[in-house]
Design a protein that fits this description.
This protein is mainly beta and 728 residues long. It has five helices and 54 strands.
């Protein structure tokens, strides 16, 4: 009899669930919840073809992008939309309040405006509220305090103002709070958040710097990111669980006798005032894996305890300070380090021969290091980025650099290196400008399929530029100025479909400008805006934690701390008559500089096909013929220099279409006729046209007749105004 009794009980339970739960048996979300989502969608601006799965009559639980439901009740639990779903702007509709079982509301980077609907305070199950990177405004509404199940709040990168509601301290389950980059102008207290693990509160608009005495933090905090605060050691006295601290634009006033209770895994202090010295209390932080003290006005030698006490150190960045003395790393110290950045200091002496063997990123640039590159660098086989530029190095580039299998950025520019570029050297970005290198163009470089930026300018290279340069299929920036190259401009340049900057100026190049130059694809597209061109290095794990390491805090951006390193490639160009330095290169920066060579013949008639070109310099050559009217099609042109050639004929009237043109130099040619008088052409001074005896019209004195402009009527006097008032 036992078996039938069990079966009867199971059957009874099943019928009870079936007839009491309206969702079971339908296997899709309730109609009123799908309708609420459709109303929410109506308040969004969605690009064509996106969120097309949100169709009335279909199951929002299984079919709709960004929506997830409970596996048993089929009630909507998660709304997760980002820019990837094509949402571009909109409001947070109150219809979301009709999702009473919602646990995760994640609306990030989709341009939302307006305020947070007050009815969201009734969704008692809400656990995650992520509204990061929108344009939401107003105050943070107090009804958030009703959401007692909240564990994660992220409202960073918005326009919230005022003060955080004091009742926020009642959220005893809150673990993660990110409120950075808003317009809060009042100070706040967080001591009551007894479960808080991670706090991100930087870049506010406080009327004055908040001090640590006005900010009380719960003892549970493990990750802390603050800015614009005057800090004393009292802020940290009860934070025994602290693991990672990030401070920027702060003032640190910590006593020399202070002994922390915590052992940090990572510390980042950037652009802060720390009394010109590395804090002594750091010497007892034996668990540090990452240390970054950047732009902190530190004026001293690197303390020896940095190398001796931090056996687990993986990441060390001391750049942009005033560190001096020799860079000496004791043997077998910081053995596991993968990133070392001491750039932009005043370090002297020889390049250290003892370096951690597993380095992936090494930045020694912008110091006063001397001597040759040690042979021991050959053992650094894991290098991804090596920057030793702007020092006083001499000797040769070690041939073993060609054996670096992972190198992506190699910058040895602005030194006194001699010899040639090693055969087989290949990277994504290769910069050796302003040295004493010589020889022919390295033929092996043309086999480098990953090369995006090559700068070998200001050296003593000679010979012809080989046609095989057209094999550099990934090249975007090719800089070879101020060498001794001869021969012709290679016609195979046309194969460089991604080339956007070409500089062959100040060489001995002769012959015609190849017709193929007018077909460079990347310069033929007009771009209104663009992104920064950089060599993106592989993701770099700042703290190489063991996955079994339970000491790491829970969910958050530093659970797996990915440190993406960019190579901000720099560029020098003669633009608008000035020697300009670009600290980085944008995809909209396009230019050709063939000036100061021995080029002759005509400019290709269809040169105007380069509609995306912004800078063109063909000055100081022997070019002749007319200036092609097609130049008027280069609508993005900002600087044009054709001076000191033998051009003849008229200045094309089509130049009046170049509305962005800010610098024009046509001087010292054989141009004739009248200067076009429309738009930009009337903004240039006579130096733009001088040295053309047969040229006439303003701004040259010859046959210059500026149009007469009628003067506006005189303003009425005070008495006249008073008379008008009296008339009324």
């Amino acid at each position: 009899m036992a078996v039938p009794l069990v079966n009867f009980a199971l059957i009874s339970a099943a019928f009870t669930i079936l007839f009491t739960n309206p969702c079971v048996g339908r296997f899709n979300c309730p109609t009123h919840e799908s309708q609420a989502l459709l109303s929410f969608k109506e308040a969004l601006n969605v690009s064509d073809g996106n969120l097309s799965s949100w169709v009335n009559g279909t199951d929002c639980c299984s079919k709709w992008d960004g929506i997830s439901c409970n596996n048993f009740t089929y009630r909507v639990e998660r709304v997760n939309l980002s820019a990837e779903q094509g949402v571009q702007s909109g409001l947070i509709s109150g219809s979301l309040c009709n999702l009473p079982f919602l646990k995760y509301l994640i609306l990030t980077n989709i341009g939302l405006t307006g305020t947070i609907p007050s009815c969201l305070g009734n969704i008692s199950h809400l656990n995650y509220l992520h509204l990061k990177n929108n344009r939401l405004s107003g105050i943070v509404p107090p009804f958030i305090c009703q959401l007692t199940n909240l564990s994660h709040i992220d409202i960073a990168f918005n326009q919230f103002r005022g003060i955080l509601p004091s009742c926020l301290q009642n959220l005893s389950l809150l673990k993660y709070l990110s409120i950075s980059f808003n317009q809060f102008n009042e100070k706040f207290q967080l001591a009551g958040l007894s479960s808080l693990d991670q706090l991100y509160a930087r870049h506010f608009s406080f009327r004055e710097n908040i001090t640590s005495s006005e900010l009380t933090l719960p003892s549970s905090v493990k990750i802390l990111w603050l800015s614009h605060i005057a800090i004393s050691d009292t802020l940290f006295h009860n934070l025994a669980e602290l693991k990672f601290v990030f401070l920027s634009d702060c003032v640190l006033n910590i006593s020399t006798t202070w002994i922390p209770q915590f052992q940090l895994g990572g510390l980042d202090i950037t652009s802060c005032s720390i009394d010109g010295r590395i804090p002594d209390w750091l010497s007892a932080q034996y668990s540090l894996r990452g240390l970054q003290l950047v732009d902190d006005n530190i004026v001293e030698e690197i303390p020896s305890w940095i190398w001796q006490n931090f056996a687990e150190l993986i990441h060390l960045n001391l750049s942009r300070n005033h560190l001096h003395g020799n860079l000496t790393i004791p043997n077998r110290s910081v053995r596991w380090m993968t990133l070392l950045d001491v750039s932009r200091n005043a370090l002297t002496g020889n390049v250290p021969s003892q370096l951690p063997p597993y380095l992936e990123l090494l930045m020694l640039n912008d110091n006063a290091l001397i001597g040759s590159i040690p042979q021991s660098f050959c053992t650094l086989t894991n290098l991804v980025k090596l920057d030793m530029s702007s020092n006083k190095l001499n000797g040769n580039i070690p041939p073993c650099f060609a054996n670096y299998k992972f190198i992506q950025v190699l910058n040895l520019g602005d030194n006194s290196l001699e010899g040639t570029i090693p055969h087989g050297l290949c990277s994504s970005s290769l910069i050796v400008r302003n040295n004493k290198l010589s020889g022919a163009f390295p033929p092996s470089i043309t086999n480098c399929k990953t090369l995006q930026l090559l700068d070998i300018g200001q050296n003593n290279f000679s010979g012809e530029i080989p046609q095989s340069v057209g094999n550099l299929s990934a090249i975007k920036v090719l800089l070879m100025k101020d060498n001794r190259f001869s021969g012709c401009v290679p016609s195979k340049l046309v194969h460089l479909k991604q080339l956007q900057i070409l500089d062959l100026s100040s060489n001995n190049i002769s012959g015609f400008i190849p017709h193929s130059v007018a077909s460079l694809r990347a310069m033929s597209v007009a771009r209104e805006d663009g992104h920064m061109l950089s060599v993106m290095l592989k993701p770099y794990h700042l703290y190489a934690r063991d996955k079994g390491d339970k000491s790491w805090p829970g969910i958050g951006p530093f659970e797996e701390w990915v440190y993406e390193v960019l190579s901000h490639d720099e560029l020098d160009m003669i633009v608008k008559g000035l020697h300009l330095h670009y600290p980085y290169i944008l995809s909209t920066l396009t230019g050709i500089d063939l000036s100061n060579n021995q080029l002759n013949g005509h400019i290709p008639f269809d040169f105007g096909k380069l509609k995306g070109l912004r800078f063109l310099n063909l000055s100081r050559n022997n070019l002749n013929g007319i200036i092609p009217p097609s130049f008027g099609e280069m609508v993005q042109l900002e600087s044009l220099d054709l001076s000191t050639n033998r051009f003849s004929g008229r200045i094309p009237a089509e130049f009046q279409s170049l509305t962005l043109l800010a610098c024009l130099n046509l001087s010292n040619n054989n141009l004739s006729g009248s200067i076009p008088q429309g738009r930009q052409m009337i903004t240039f001074e006579n130096t733009s046209y001088s040295g053309n005896p047969n040229l006439e019209g303003c701004p040259l004195p010859k046959k210059c007749s500026w149009p007469e402009f009628s003067l506006p009527p005189p303003l009425p006097s005070t008495n006249d105004i008073q008379d008008e008032k009296e008339d009324y």
